[in-house]
Amino acid sequence: MEIRDDRIDAGKAFDWGRTSKDYARFRDIYPEIFYNKIVDRGLCISGQNVLDIGTGTGVLPRNMYRFGASWTGTDISPEQIEQAKRLSKEAGMDIAYRAVSAEELDYPAESFDVITACQCFWYFDHKKVIPEFARLLKAGGKLLILYMAWLPFEDEIAGKSEEIVKRYSPNWSGAGETRHPIHIPDVVYEHFLMEEHEEYDVMVPFTRESWHGRMKACRGVGASLTGFELNAWEKEHWEMLELNAPEKFEVLHYAALAVLGRKDN
């Protein structure tokens, strides 16, 4: 499904379906602390029904399945959902998935204890989805927003990779990240209260192959470049890694979370 949004990449079209296989193989990279910080807050654990919006290939529900929550994952891309179903089945996990946009959810009111949005919150039409999230949450329910990004101005490999992506996708708005709290649009506060947020650094291990695959799976590369552009990017990025990166290395990232509660809780 091709998506255009003037807020993202200056309106350049992208399609997660084009990169779903790479996404499934290379985007399951969150470190253990990423999940522990969720569980330590009593979220996404046994006895809770959790809705993961923008689930992609089901990275969050698959990695948190062991903590006992009942998970539902939704995503606008049928190809992403196909990969999520495959990976969950192979792992023997009972996770419900649907290919549906966040703006078209139709679950009954007060169906979920937690709604999660990992690496996707900025894609939504917040005026439409925020009242719906409040409707879907039970009393005492939480909206959990999660994010992780490499730090290109501090990590050499991340910085060099970004430079190459920008040559092929000059309007890619995923570049230039620095540490900051997750941006919460004003409309969210009409229905939710910020309860806490946290930002912290993590080192994420890669091989040349896995970092190349992780970069290829990003919106500015595999989801939006033409076949000719993608082939050229792959050649240039591989050459950079062979010159600058050992076979195994770590990339500096920061991670962030925000926990919000319904105003009427």
SSE order in H/E notation?
Answer: HHEHEHEEHEHEHHE
Terminus-to-terminus distance: 37 Å
Overall geometry:
globular
Strand content: 25-35%
Please state the CA-atom Rg, rounded to the nearest Å.
18 Å
Class by helix and strand content?
A: alpha/beta
How many E-type strands? 7
Helix content: 25-40%
Mean pLDDT: 97
Could you give a short account of the major beta sheet? 7 strands, mixed
Order of the strands making up the biggest sheet: 3-2-1-4-5-7-6
Q: What is the overall number of helices?
A: 8
Uncertain residue ranges: none
Walkthrough of the structure:
By secondary structure, the protein is of the alpha/beta class. Helices cover 32% and strands 25% of the residues. It has 8 helices and 7 strands; from the N terminus they run H-H-E-H-E-H-E-E-H-E-H-E-H-H-E. Strands 3-2-1-4-5-7-6 form a 7-stranded mixed sheet. Helix 1 (20-26) runs antiparallel to helix 7 (208-216) and helix 6 (156-168) packs antiparallel against helix 8 (227-244). The longest helix is centred in the C-terminal third of the chain and has 18 residues, at 227-244. The chain is globular and about 55 Å long. The protein starts with 19 loop residues before the first helix and ends with a strand. The mean pLDDT is 97.
